[in-house]
Structures are given as structure tokens and as C-alpha cells.
Amino acid sequence: MITPNFAITQDFKFITIIIKTPYIKVSDVELYCEGPDFTFYVKPYYLRLHFPGNLVDDDRVNASYDISAGEMNIKIPKETPGEEFPDLDLLTKLLAPKSVKKISEKPLIEVVKDNYDSQENDDELEELFEKENDIQKSYKNNDFLIKELNSNVNNDVNDVNDANEDRKSKPLIQELFDEKNNGDNETNKLYKLLEEADAYNWELPQQLPNEKELLSTAKYGFNRLYSGYFMHIQETCNEIIDITDPERSTPESRRQDRINAENNKFDPDHYMADFMCAEEIRHLIKSKNVWWKGSSDLNFTEKENSIMRKLTNKQYLIENLGSIYYGLVDLLFAYSYNYRVFEGENTVESPWMIGKISPTISCLEQFESIEETMKALYRRSLAYPWYRNYELAKKCQEDVYDLLKLGKRAILKVLLELKDLFDHHDIYYIYSKILLDDYCIWCQTKASDKAIRSLAHKLHHHKVLKSDTGWHLEEYEHLALEDAQEQKTMDLK
């Protein structure tokens, strides 16, 4: 578990706890408050605080989550309004676990009850225990504890008990943990275990994160503006990302990770099966994307206008303008593939499919040419989705060309749809923050129609050959055709 960064303030009636918990699923948050103890849990974060005063868990408790800041704001009322909670800035003190009770050792021999004649027994025992003066302390009121007796004293005590057998009364001295005494022994052992369990500190250890560990050098996203968004990628169940350690990666290592992942994922049998059983795929290839054929379809809807109103205007100092435009081609290709496969309807699989096909999203790639951009897109479309077909990838390239020809409005509509799709996903919404938000702003304010038309022309004349993928696609197709011919010949016989 990760102990999150947090801060605490107070006013006359409330304690306010601000917890830094980016990239969480808010519906999984669990809060617990009783007396001075407060517990917060949502995977992968866990926070337990012990306040110097009592809190009240009632209807006045309020919790809200700021997505943009990644902060959980929790207000809890004080049990006594006006009480000043000291040392709220001493975070280590608030994280300190409760004190652990010491388990008092039960004596091996304990006086249960005295039914003997006090004077007579005192005289007899006084002589016996003279042999252990450091153990013998007091016999006043017959209320004493004996921690240890040697074997000779034990024998003498047994002799005294035998001499008084005719007195029908309970023994003065009783062994509590005698292995021979099975009945009472089990009860006493259980009692001891319960005491230990009650005193055991069951609370998880906590430690504030080291600020040095939070620092990262990797820059990614739009214009390489972001870092720190994949700090705890192992705990977030992000199935899109293909980079082993995004926060310590370089552009070169990210590209190598992408190529290795694609090579491992590519399945020749899957490709040959889709090549031979392509009836459904042909239907997808022949379908028409009617919605972007006329300028009348490019009017923004009220939903799109609402999304644009929430975006803040930014000024960008672009480091590599070419990589921004190639990243745009990347996003439009992934969108076009999803649009064709699901025939214009987004599904629960759409964020994963778009993210997995797009190397800009899945591998945080930045391209320097249209050649390497299209090569990566073809490879991923043949390695990851359900339909892995070269002709389908070519058709998606044509769709991107059609979109680019229509200009900024058509592109912006696609970007807004992608943003809305990723915004509403519990895990993948971070891609809106590091990529899609900025693309939506940049497309409205800085994208050049002239540059987009030039890019469309360049894309239209670029051809990706099957050999460019680095896989032997033509050989696999030839093998598949030969196998089908042999099967057909055997069926005729």
C-alpha cells in the first residue's frame, strides 16, 4: 500500500483533510472515522491518522474529488466545536500507531483461595520457603505470588498437601498451566491467546513517500509537457500502456519497448485466419463513413460545445511541430479503425482499442516522419485488435486522408469525441490530461489549415508495403492459400 501525501487544516467546527490521490476510481473510496481515528483507503492508497481530539461521523461529513488536481477533500466535524487540535502540521505524529499494550505475564502458580487455618499453614509454609528467600516476599492476608520454585520446594509443598487430605477443602496452591491438567489447561491457553490477539497491533505500517522517489526525468504527452502520471502504473490495471517503466524511459527506450511488444504480440496464425476468412472484414472495408462527407455534418453539437467551454485557453511553445502533426495522424488512424470495426458506435472496448492501436497513447511515442508513423500504425493494427487485416489498415489510412481534407473542424470533432470517451473511463482518463485536452485546444488555436492540407497530400501518396511491417506477411498469405488449396483438393477426392 502507498501512503499518499496529505495536508490538514481546521476551523471552528471542522477538520479538513486534503489527500493527494491521482488516478483513482472514486467509487472505490472507503472512509472510516471513530473517535480520534480516521482511515482512508482506495487502491493503491492507504492512510490512517490518529488525531489529538475526537471526530464525529455523521451526516455533516463531506467528501469531494478534484479530478484536475487529483485531490480528495474530506471535511469531518469535531466532537467538541471550538476545540483546537494541536500539532496538525506534525505529520509523523499523526501517523504514529496506537500504543501497544504489554501483556502481563500470568504467574505459573497463583493463590486461588485460602480455606486452611491461617496460622497453622503460615507456620508450615514459612519453614518451607526459607530455602528461597528471594522469592518469599509476604504472607500477609495470604495474597502473594510465587514466580519460581525449585524442585525441592515443590516436593515439600506436595507433602504438606498430602498431610491435609482429610480436610475437605480446595488447595491453597494451584498450578494454572500444568500440561497434565487438560481441562483447565485448554481454557487458560485460549484465554492467553485472546489476550495476545487483543493487544496485538493489527494496523498497517505507514511511511510518507520520499520526495526524491517522486521525482522523474521522463517527459511525454503533448509537446513533452508531462511527467509523473505513470508513477504507480502496476497498481492501476492500465492494459493499454506497453512501456515497462514510463517514468524512467527515454524516447529511444520507449520505441524499443514498442517494437519488442509488437513482435511478441504478432500471431501469424491469427493473421492467416483473418486473411482466409475475410467475409466480415470485407463488409467493414466496404462500409461508407457518411457523416463526414458533407460540410453540413461539421456543425458542433451542444455536447461538443459544452466540452469546448470547459477547456482553458493555453499558449504553447512547440518544440517539434512536425511530431504534433504526426501524432494527430496517429490519433485519427486509431479512431478510424474503431469507427469501422464498430460501424460508427463506441463500445466499452473502444478506449482500449483506440489506445492500443495508437502508439502515441500506448507507447508515448513521438514521430519524426510520416513513414515511421504509418509503419507503427500498420504493425499495431495487425498485432493487437480482433480483426488483423492489411487491407483494413489501408482503408483506415484512406479515412484519415478524408478527415484531413475536411480541415480543422472535422479533426476537432474527432478529438472531442476521443476526449469524451477517455474522460469517462476510470483508468484511461489520464490520456485526456496528457494528450487529448491539449490537442483539442491546439487544434482550435494554433493548427494550420495549410499545414493540414499539406499533410493530407503527403499521407495520400505514402504507401506502406507488407514488407515494411518487418513481418513476412506475403509468405504467410501464400502458405494460407496453399493450405486452402490442399484442403479443397482433399475434399474433392
TrEMBL record:
InterPro entries, A to Z: CS_dom, HSP20-like_chaperone, Shq1, SHQ1-like_CS, Shq1_C
GO cellular component: cytoplasm; nucleoplasm
GO terms assigned for molecular function: unfolded protein binding
Any GO BP annotation: box H/ACA snoRNP assembly
CS domain location: 1-89
PANTHER family registered for this protein in UniProt: PROTEIN SHQ1 HOMOLOG
Family that this chain belongs to: Belongs to the SHQ1 family.
Protein name in the entry: SHQ1-domain-containing protein
Origin species: Rhizophagus clarus
